[in-house]
Amino acid sequence: MKYRVSVEEIGELNVERFLRTLGWAQIYDRRGDKFSYVKRLSRDFYPRLHLYVKKYPDNYVFDLHLDQKKASYEGHSAHSGEYEGDLVNNALESIKRALKTKITNTEIREPEKKDVLNELGEGNLDEDEELTKKNDKESKLKRLFKRIF
Question: What is the pLDDT of residues 48-72, one digit of tens each?
Answer without folding.
Answer: 999 999 999 999 999 999 998 876 6
